[in-house]
Amino acid sequence: MEAAEAEYFSKDFEWDELRAEVENDPSFRYHLLPFESSTIPSSQTTTRATTAEEEEDSTAWKRFHIRHSSGKFFKERRYLLKEFPELVSCGESSKVLEVGCGNGSTALPILRGNEHIIVYACDCSSEILERAEEIIDAATVVSVRHRFRTFCCDFSVTGLPKWLACHTCREVFLQKQQNCLSDVKESHERHFNDSNSMKESTCCIGGMDFVTLIFTLSAVTFQRMPASITECFSVLKPGGMLLFRDYGLYDMTMLRFEPNQRVGLMEYMRSDGTRSYFFSLDTVRDLFVGAGFIELELEYCCVKSVNRRNEKTMRRVWVHGKFQKPM
Q1: Is 134 exposed, middle or buried, given 0-12, 13-18 or 19+ CB atoms closer than 10 A?
Q2: Which tops the pLDDT comparison, 194 or 39?
Q3: Cα–Cα distance, 173 to 163 (Å, whole number)
Q4: Could you give the maximum distance between any two Cα atoms of the chain, in Å?
Q5: Which residues contact 97 (CB under 8 A, 6 or more apart)?
Q6: Chain-centre distance for alpha carbon 323
Q7: pTM of the full predicted structure?
């Protein structure tokens, strides 16, 4: 088990060598062609109005979650606690917001690794939130029912609910959730929306100790990324940390996309309508520092994995980052 875990964290190749190989290969040239509107937009010019494109993106991911609702599709991300040990060493009753939680593959190892941590988890799909609750409720985790709290939200479209940053409003949320848990027939009401269930309040300063963006931001259209990151910044406590992991530039999956699947610079759309963006370190840095964060760690994670069926080696590239809200 220890040997298998070590493979997750080794640097199997240098990203600069991969970059040189890709950029000198004529068959990959179309990935590098410029796109209009490829510069990072400012948050002031980014609107959160629910456009047809935003609705299509959200619908595509909801359909994706319905198709892949089984626990077999998303494997528990056990490597996260080694990548982000702060989630284990943090103080009692520390609060984590997991944005785009899917079926709980990120939340579960966090809850396992720290029996005192509280995880708030949101996703755009109420169906996948119900599946996440089922998976985590079935796990042998200490007092998990009281430490895993879900709500339905597409943070890139509507923003995050204000009660995440307010102690008083969060208590109202917990009371509403507890009332719903007492009635199995109304279990779907566990998923709260800020505009419908929460009265906004500025009575105090609360906030999250951590926000996790684990393979979530890449699913957001590039134009909406600055405003989405600003939302994460707004619900963190001063000194709170954002933990980031997502697809890196020249990852194997990027190079598999066909020319007609490009919808922007390093931005692609799958046949099912879901998006995927592949980040360079400079892009990640500009996005997060531009939102007010302090960069703590930022690097490529380059791992070779072997497809057991065809014995082909796959070079995976992810971006690992830690960012802090100033005190």
Answers
A1: middle
A2: 39
A3: 8
A4: 61
A5: 120, 121, 122, 160, 164, 208, 210, 211, 212, 232, 235
A6: 14
A7: 0.82
Please compute the mean of the pLDDT values over residues 227-251 and round it to a whole number.
Answer: 96
Mean pLDDT across 1-21: 70
3-state SS, residue 219: helix
Contact indicator for 272, 63 with CB cutoff of 8 Å:
yes
Q: Rounded to the nearest 5 degrees, what angle is found at the Cα of 251, between the Cα atoms of 102 and 85?
A: 55
Q: Indicate the pairing of strand 262-264 with strand 95-99.
A: unpaired
User: By three-state DSSP, how is residue 163 classified?
Assistant: helix
Helix (H) / strand (E) containing 148: strand 148-152
Q: Which two tokens stand for residue 232?
A: 């994460």
Q: How many Cβ atoms are within 10 Å of 308's Cβ, its own excluded? A: 7
CB 166, CB 204: distance < 8 Å: yes
Say if residues 268 and 257 touch (Cβ distance below 8 Å). yes
Q: What's the mean per-residue pLDDT of the chain?
A: 82
Residues 300-321: pLDDT tens digits? Answer: 999 998 877 777 888 999 999 9
Amino acid of residue 44? Q
The CA-CA-CA angle for residues 149, 150, 154, to 5°, reads 145
Burial (CB < 10 A; 0-12, 13-18, 19+), residue 133, is: buried
Give pLDDT tens digits for 261-279: 999 999 999 988 889 999 9
According to DSSP, residue 100 is labeled S
Of 275, 245, 217, the closest CA to residue 60 belongs to 275
* Residue-level pLDDT at 125: 86
Mean pLDDT for the stretch of residues 49-55: 59
Residue 1: exposed, middle, or buried by beta-carbon count in 10 A (0-12, 13-18, 19+)? exposed
Residues 6+ apart with CB under 8 A from 269: 261, 263, 275, 276
